[in-house]
Amino acid sequence: MSEDKKSVSRRQFLNYTLTGAGGFMAAGLIVSPLRMAIDPVLQKSSASGDYTNVKLAVEDITNEPQRVEWKIDQVDGWYESKVTKAAWVYKKENGDIVALSPICKHLGCFVSWEGSDDYPDEFYCPCHGGRYYKSGVNVPNTPPTAGLDIYEHKVENGMLYLGKAQPREEE
Ligand code: FES
Question: Where are the domains of the chain?
Answer without folding.
Answer: 1-42, 52-166
